[in-house]
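Quick one: structure tokens for this chain, please?
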Amino acid sequence: MADPYSLLGIPRGADEAAIKSAYRKLAKELHPDRNKDNPKAAEKFSEVTRAYDLLSDKDKRAQFDRGEIDGEGNPTHPFGFNPGGGRGHGGRGGPEGFEFGGSGGDFGDIFEGLFGGGRRAGGGVGARTPPPQRGANMAYRLSVPFVDAATLAPQRITLADGKTIDLKLPAGVESGTQMKLAGKGQPGPAGNGDAIVTIEVGDHPFFKREGDNVRLDLPISLNEALSGGRIKVPTVDGPVMLAVAPGAYSGQTLRLKGKGFNRKGGERGDQFVTLMIDVPGEDPALKSFVENWRDERPLRGHLGV
């Protein structure tokens, strides 16, 4: 793979925000859904996704910048030296401090251990032909709506070859969860690689996630707070009726059991509903009432005022 900075079109000193912005722009342009008749765009999409995965990982980015790994994340010098460079004490092209043959160490045994290679009949170092390799993995990112993630609704993804697959989300899914689609990567002599799908759970206008639980601030009227009653409340599974006792107050939290995210163990989290009394700013009847009524309780006495 080419230099990941070049693939994303950013300088080496780019910060996280610039990396994410560049990736989003390219992913939008190159996504297979928008380029069904252009296989090169799909291949490019996979490349920029791998580049983003490397540069968004601080440790891998630092290793790449130091030249320790390449753009694929593979070590650039996996065995710590260049077998063709330097000269051994025996003058036979070995690394400093080693000899090939003679009274020095036998490098055939070392290379056999490293590479699984054998020795040629003449006693020199040999290596077996490397086995055929599988095709490369392909990276995808899938945005999943908040409610779909909570209820494990099936998701559909379009692969680089234009084919679509329906995915079953795993319990406990969250942003960063990865799913492997075996054999859906690039082809190779030893078989296809895999497709690695990284999930990104979207935000919601009024639900908030807290672990496996869901939180909601629920506006209620003054008369609902004073008199209590059954109030319709939204949940990830659809609206339900919630019983509010008379004398409810702002900040009071009620629980709806089993209305949160699916846990890995099979159970579900809960939904916590915080009541927020909404008093109208201009209401003649309410204004007339409070003009003739005073709450004489020492509401702020515990605060020392």
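The chain has a mean pLDDT of 83.
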